[in-house]
Specification:
This protein is of the alpha/beta class and 317 residues long. The protein folds into 2 domains: 153 residues, Nitrogenase molybdenum iron protein domain (Rossmann fold, 3-Layer(aba) Sandwich), CATH 3.40.50.1980; 124 residues, Nitrogenase molybdenum iron protein domain (Rossmann fold). The protein contains 10 helices and 8 strands. Helix 7 links the parallel strand 5 and strand 6. Helix 2 crosses helix 5, helix 2 crosses helix 6 and helix 5 packs antiparallel against helix 6. The radius of gyration is 23 Å and the shape is globular. The N terminus is likely disordered.
């Protein structure tokens, strides 16, 4: 009886599909939401991704918590941005990299494509996710890191990467269409900090931030005064706040312009260093930039689709 039961069990196991014996998903920890979403898009059901920095979190000032340390030391793969974005965590990653696989995915972008950092002579502007063209390079770096960690899933990762890159190309084309519809005199983007330099370069916009590339840089009264003069002289009607940066400096600009007799409003809230809520369209890389493109173009004078490129934006414009 026991023998027949054992043989029946063996027959049942032999009949199971190979997928039933698949390895557990790779445990991946990513610092920013943009990297976490990219890893999910490429990895599919082969990965279990934990993002450390949620909505509204400033990566320039972020320090790892005890929970973060536990998650990273237990992960199969840790993905961070690099380019001095996570400035407060660099020493930690240097140490962690001696013990396990840690990859700075934005460091793979050709340095010839990068903007110089305004505060550090030997570093670069890290905000490459603002350019769909540059983010393609980061996508490939994430694919390579996942493939090295799980080579048997290489074909799946390659197929998912190509599908994701096609989405990014469609996003880039949408940005070109919407942002070039803005009257040329209005193509100036005034924000809390200089996170949109690559965005401006890609779409032909002048970008002015109250603070520099890092939110840790100081915004002096002289800088506020210069930007107020620019708003008044150019007769610009809109400035933009950021989801991960205080709006205090933008209020100062609006008040300063009002004192000069010029009315300026908030064109909308943009996602700069962090995405929207996890589980929402704006909580994906595509949704984040779809939101930004649609808000900016609409506020500066273009006729935009009410709910963005694919009709998926949470709020209409």
């Amino acid at each position: 009886m026991i023998r027949r039961t054992f043989l029946a069990a063996l027959a049942f196991v032999a009949a199971l599909p190979a997928a039933a014996f698949a390895e557990a998903p790779l445990k991946v920890v990513a610092t920013t939401g943009m990297i976490a979403d990219t890893a999910r898009q490429i990895g599919g059901d082969q990965v279990e991704v934990k993002g450390l920095m949620g909505p509204g979190v400033d990566p320039h000032a972020y320090r790892q918590t005890r929970t973060d340390i536990v998650a990273m030391t237990r992960a199969d793969l840790v993905l961070w941005h690099g380019l001095y974005l996570e400035a407060q965590m660099e020493d930690f990653f240097d140490d962690l990299g001696r013990k396990q696989t840690v990859v700075a995915v934005a460091e793979g972008v050709d340095k010839g494509k990068l903007r110089a950092h305004d505060d550090y002579a030997d570093k670069y502007d890290p905000h490459v996710w603002m350019s769909p063209v540059l983010w393609r390079d980061v996508v490939i770096e994430v694919q390579d890191a996942l493939t090295l960690a799980r080579p048997e899933a290489a074909e799946l990762f390659a197929a998912n990467t190509q599908a994701f890159l096609a989405e990014i190309d469609a996003l880039s084309a949408y940005g070109e269409q919407m942002l070039t519809a803005v009257p040329e005199d209005n193509r100036m983007l005034v924000t809390a900090h200089d996170a949109f330099g690559y965005f401006g370069a890609e779409y032909g916009y002048e970008v002015l931030g109250v603070q520099g590339i890092s939110t840790q840089s100081e915004a002096g009264l002289n800088r506020i005064g210069e930007l107020v003069d620019t708003l008044v002289n150019r007769q610009l009607k809109a400035v933009f706040v950021e989801s991960s940066v205080s709006d205090r400096s933008m209020r100062a600009l609006i008040e300063g312009a009002a004192a000069e007799g010029h009315e300026v409003g908030v064109g909308g809230e943009l996602y700069s260093d962090a995405m929207g809520e996890l589980g929402t369209y704006e909580g994906t890389y595509i949704g984040m930039l779809d939101h930004n493109i649609t808000v900016i173009a609409g506020a500066l004078g273009a006729d935009v689709p009410q709910r963005g490129m694919n009709g998926n934006l949470s709020a209409g414009f």
